Amino acid sequence: MNRIAVEKKVLNENQVLAEQLRERYRRLGILCVNLISAPGSGKTALLERTLERMDRSTRVAVLTGDLQTENDAQRLAKFEFPVKQITTGGTCHLDAKLIGKHLEDWKLEDLDLLIVENVGNLVCPSSYDLGEDAKIVLLSTTEGEDKPLKYPSIFFKSELMLLTKIDLLPYVPFSAEVARENARRVHPGMEIIDVSNTTGEGLDRWMGWLAARQEKAKSKLESVGT
Amino acid sequence: MGTANNLTPSNHATMGRAGMHELGIATSILEHVQAEAQRHPGRRISKVGVKIGELSGVDRDALQFGFEVLVKDTEWEPLVLEMEYVPRMQRCSKCACEFRMEDFDPHCPRCGEFSTQCISGEELDIAYMEVET
User: Fold this and answer.
1) Most buried of A119, A216, B7, B63, CB within 10 angstroms?
2) What is the ipTM of this complex?
3) What pLDDT score does B19 carry?
């Protein structure tokens, strides 16, 4: 019996494709964010509010993933930014290959911001790098405060947590304080923004976060040269 | 890289129980085995060792089950999947103490510092394979 050391990432193939995407975004100064949450935490609602507030001159595009249906793309189409639905046909996450394939007929040079809405799932999307600059996890006040402890991987890997449906706090047995504490136990120093897609609370901060990150993506571009 | 295209209908029928996530991971592991096998013509691979980090988000039982289903009744059988669990380790930014993070408490057990960095636990790596001689 001969033991050979291999030392490769299991998802090496996905990783290679993700790095290629990341490099393409970097060269063009595009900010790519990957929105991840359980089903029903408000990813699509957040996107509606985000696109609604987005300056018309911002060149933003959205890829939205679901197991089935084109419903989300239809919901987002009215804002007249490019939106494309990715239906995985049962697979529980998006991977870098799917992203690459769906970007094929878009001119990336014409984009500043690419928002990827992952399939509603807190487990699988955490393993698949999509070439994004930042993963963003959403946790809503109608879920359990202990979700960060139950699904530590995604909370650890996300730069920002959006605590959604914050307007429902008076009506649900949910402690925002405990939720934030749990998130920061898993991911010390994690950025957290409370938002409500219904009342609009916190959305300015969220838009500010996105703008600051876009600025950063652009400034990297200038420091490298074209 | 080859693909895990040796699935029989019975493999497909049972795979739902493994959960799609771990099955995808199992498929990727088998693809690594197939790629490695091509480098050793005429010899068979009997074991693949993987490292599964605490933060990898992978359920080891589901992965084991998915892998067995995937390999069953194919030319790759018998092929053992051996998993090494890698706990989350932190390093203290003040005193450099390295410790296993228990109960999501990031504090350094030696000096009490809060600022500690994660140094392992994210692994989802192929570590080794055993080739029959």
Assistant:
1) B63
2) 0.79
3) 54
